[in-house]
């Protein structure tokens, strides 16, 4: 159990079987592990609403639990759940549909994800878009110069940084990133790739960077606290995210808030922020040539990157992504659902 800012956090334990073919079983195992813990907590605290984050697996476990305890429920769809998990099998799609049809309020992190849910052809769905916020105080590098950030991080002024932030897993397009960067590095001798984050593909990526002869140009920085991460954004020339699928990733919002051009794959949700040719470049998922070409354009023309970065920051400011607004929107959903439970 943890306590963060006075809020107690309990982590129910459950058996998880390795391998994607056991995903249905793992969702059920999550429910069987979580239900008795939530029942005990409900007996102590008497809450009347369950909010699940992710339609699968958490949403299914949360919805079954809410039904058994006669509680109201809401569920936030995040992208991977709808675009990938729900497409794995007929059973997984049925589980997703069960959650969406029975939860009191479906929330999505972006408009495009809401459209994907509508493709499941369920009737009378109540979908509300609530964008995740971005810490506009931390991720506003107006007071941190590009030069100062490089100096603080130990980079020379003639080095050019391509930055990736996220989990180091295959679905984030990390192999395509290494391949694209290897091509870029042949044209720009002082370019480096910084990978911020950790994941199960890190060792394999290091091996690939050795095979491609770029091992001395790829930096694995690991997980970083938010304030330090802002400095890496400030020091970068361009931020890249080649994910196969997303909801509306915070990484892109953070990068744009810091005034950085973005090269991203055309995953669901991405085009809500990255306007091709205006705030960055969009490339086809899995397309190494397109990613390399986009990076080369930005590295060859610093002024183009700065212009795109300024437009990106203006777009984020105009959309007013901030956690205060996000929290207020969720609070209103909770209020509406709990008032219904009193009727």
Automatic annotation (TrEMBL):
GO molecular function: glycosyltransferase activity
InterPro entries: Glyco_trans_1, Glyco_trans_4-like_N, Glycosyltransferase_grp1
Record keyword Transferase present: yes
Domain Glycosyltransferase subfamily 4-like N-terminal: 23-136
Domain Glycosyl transferase family stretches: 150-314
Top-rank lineage group of the source organism: Bacteria
Pfam families in UniProt: Glyco_transf_4, Glycos_transf_1
Keyword entries, A-Z: Transferase
Protein name as catalogued: Glycosyltransferase involved in cell wall bisynthesis
Organism: Desulfotruncus arcticus DSM 17038
